[in-house]
Write a structure and sequence with these properties.
The complex is a heterodimer of chains A (186) and B (253). Chain A is built from eight helices and no strands. Chain A is mostly helical and 186 residues long. Chain A has a domain of 122 residues. With 253 residues, chain B is an all-alpha fold. Chain B has two domains: 217 residues; 34 residues. Helix content of chain B is 81%, strand content 0%. The chains are: A mainly alpha (186), B mainly alpha (253). Chains A and B meet through helix 1, helix 3, helix 5, helix 6 and helix 8 of A and helix 5, helix 7, helix 8 and helix 10 of B.
Chain lengths: 186, 253
């Protein structure tokens, strides 16, 4: 039957997860109100949309870097690179936080739904995990290479999120097809 | 002497827990849990009496009551699920599926093992069977706790205590049953004190958390309840897609 080591590992994982749960319960006591409507409004206001696509493009574009290089000032170049990397890293963190907020709000809503679909939940969670993973990869790449050199090296990563996006579009289309049935019962 | 002291202390704490449960009307809120504690209390008294009056019958009595205790424990897990997720039908549905999955997985494993070795259950000792049942129970609790963590289900003090105490008890039981299969092992002596000692601590956790009734926090109803799940899911997918768009733009630029 279940091996000795399997049982032991299961028991240890259970004790560790219980510990994590107790800690999470204690820390969420004060911030429980964050799960309410106030947070909903706040998260909408604080979304990644605050940073326009033009600024994001500018942040990662090589044009500014070329201009600074043209001035032939190593100190300025270093300062520019440091600042730009810091801003890019901050942007990735903000985006990652935005994704977490979206997921948190989804969980808040879905935990009360009697018509919850396991397959849909699993799919959403998978998309969420992929986006978070992508943010992690992007964070490491920016730290290692800087935002300007990222365009060339992150081609593979771009293809990866493209696939994630296609999956989401497919999913959304399926959801919209089902929507009229739901609308009737509202 | 130390063993006897722990034994008596556990019986005293169980009695106190039952009295507090009765006085604080916690019986009505958590009937299965208090039925379980009553069973364990009677079991402790029975074992203690048998141990002193008819020591030759102690072993069969111990294993029969232990088996019944494991089954009663399954009902406690069900009560945690029932009370904890009463206000969260979505998470309750997810939990049902997850617990069903754990059960199917355990059953499939048992069937496959029986198919490969039809004699295993004849060779297996009572201790092996208890370890098996406790392991399945620990996986069920693990699945529930992961779900509570993931959906951030708020727990009241009472239910949190029941789950924490019972989870620790089951986890430690599996560890104990794994190491104590050989009575000549050096762990055997250690666990003969550690096991009742840890149970005493678990009873202490229950005592502290179940001193008086504290209701479970109600879920926020500010969420747009009129919405269908498909709309909620589609909105989430749309927002994740937006995030994906921003990330893609950043990399492409």
């Amino acid at each position: 039957m279940i091996g000795v080591w399997g049982a032991l590992a299961g028991a240890l994982v259970l004790l560790l997860v219980l510990l994590a749960w107790v800690r999470a319960e204690a820390s969420s006591k004060d911030s429980r109100s964050d799960w309410g409507a106030a947070d909903q409004e706040q998260s909408e206001g604080e979304s990644v949309e605050a940073c326009s696509p033009e600024i994001v493009s500018q942040l990662f574009s090589a044009a500014d870097s070329k201009f600074i290089s043209g001035l032939e000032s190593p100190g300025l170049e270093n300062l520019f690179r440091r600042e730009r990397t810091a801003v890019a890293l901050h942007w990735v963190q903000e985006t990652s936080a935005f994704i977490s907020k979206v997921m948190r709000r989804h969980l808040e809503a879905s935990r009360l739904r009697a018509d919850l679909e396991i397959a849909t939940e699993a799919r959403i969670f998978l998309q969420y995990a992929r986006l978070k993973l992508y943010c992690g990869i992007l964070f490491v790449l920016i730290g290692l290479l800087g935002p300007q050199r990222l365009a060339g090296t992150a081609l593979h990563a771009e293809r990866f999120i493209q696939r994630v996006g296609e999956g989401l579009v497919e999913f959304q289309s399926a959801a919209q097809l089902r929507e009229p049935e739901g609308s009737e019962s509202l | 002497m130390l063993g006897q002291t722990i034994w008596w202390s556990c019986i005293a704490l169980e009695t106190f827990l039952l009295v507090r449960g009765f006085a604080g009307r916690l019986w009505a809120r958590y009937p299965v849990f208090y039925a379980y504690i009553s069973f364990v209390w009677l079991q402790s008294l029975l074992r203690f009496s048998i141990f002193h009056l008819r020591p030759q019958q102690y072993k069969p009595v111990y294993w029969i009551t232990e088996g019944l205790g494991v089954l009663a424990g399954c009902a406690v897990v069900f009560e945690i699920y029932r009370v904890g997720l009463a206000a969260y039908p979505g998470t309750a549905r997810m939990a049902r599926n997850l617990l069903g999955f754990v059960s199917v997985l355990a059953l499939t494993k048992a069937l496959v093992d029986t198919w490969n070795d039809p004699q295993w259950w004849l060779i297996a000792t009572t201790m092996d069977l208890e370890r098996l049942l406790r392991t399945v129970q620990s996986f069920a609790i693990l699945a529930l706790v992961v779900l509570f963590l993931f959906y951030a289900i708020p727990f009241g003090r009472n239910l949190r205590g029941i789950l924490l105490g019972y989870g620790v008890f089951v986890g430690l039981s599996v560890i104990q049953l794994t190491f104590v299969t050989d009575s000549s092992s050096r762990f055997h002596n250690f666990w003969s004190y550690a096991s009742p000692g840890s149970y005493f601590i678990v009873l202490g956790v229950w005592m502290v958390h179940l001193w008086s009734y504290v209701p479970n926090p109600e879920p926020k109803t500010a969420v747009r309840l009129e919405e269908q799940y498909q709309r909620v899911a589609a909105a989430t997918a749309q927002r994740l897609r937006e995030a994906r768009g921003y990330l893609a733009k950043a990399v492409r630029s």
